[in-house]
Amino acid sequence: MNKKSAKNTKSKIVSAAWKLFYEQGYDDTTVEDIIRQSGTSKGSFYHYFESKDSLLGSLAYLFDEKYEELESELDPTLPTIEALLFLNRQLFEMIENTVDLELIKRLYSTQLTTRTEKQLLDHNRVYYRLLRRLIIAGQQKGDVTKAQSVNDVVKYYAFCERAVIYDWCLCNGDYSLSDSAAKLMPFFLKHIENG
Questions:
Q1: What percent of the chain has pLDDT over 90?
Q2: Do residue 42 and residue 95 come from a single domain?
Q3: Domain containing 19: what range?
Q4: Which pLDDT score, from 0 to 100, does residue 18 have?
Q5: Contact 59, 15 (CB under 8 A)
Q6: 2 has a pLDDT exceeding 80
Q7: 32, 81, 120, 124: which one has the fewest Cβ atoms less than 10 Å from its Cβ?
Q8: Residue 22 confidence (pLDDT)
């Protein structure tokens, strides 16, 4: 199986799983439901995932797919801060509208207890690569400060996003994630804006 075909198969499984988790709930979704919804096979499912539980970590993969889609929509003339706010709003709206809050909570709790790979901190993810490209371009254009390194700005930005999501989970989704971020993220981003 070539890399593109393998990525498509894994992507189909992940997308189908998270759609079903949102619609039916995690506990009421079976591996067979996921296989049927994704149009793949049992062998393909178990090639990529040990169990349904192992799909919890794939939420970061789903986020990265959204970032790839959003990157192609980004206006290259947009100031860096506005581009970052656009990405944040779009992703947080996706989370609110398509991902069950209980699953976000499970993802965060598994990231705290896992002894293996922490997907949310994997700097090889599309998320981190896109942020680095945007910050580098922003520093070159002069609209992002050079007082902080690219890696530090990316680290602080990701930290801020995780903090907003974590608080939203702690508050049981009692407020709009995207509306809250629309108020908080500009406050943070003001500190990396040049001038």
A1: 55
A2: no
A3: 1-51
A4: 81
A5: no
A6: no
A7: 124
A8: 80
Angle at 180 between CA 177 and CA 182, to 5 degrees: 110
Residues 39 and 128 in one domain: no
pLDDT digits (tens, 9 = 90+) for 9-24: 888 898 888 888 888 8
146: pLDDT confidence band, cut at 50, 70 and 90?
A: very high
The two structure tokens encoding residue 75: 């206006």
Two structure tokens written together for 33: 């439901």
CB-CB contact of 18 with 57 (8 Å):
no
User: Torsion over CA of 51, 52, 53 and 55, rounded to 10 degrees?
Assistant: 100
Claim to verify: residue 115 and residue 177 sit in the same structural domain: yes
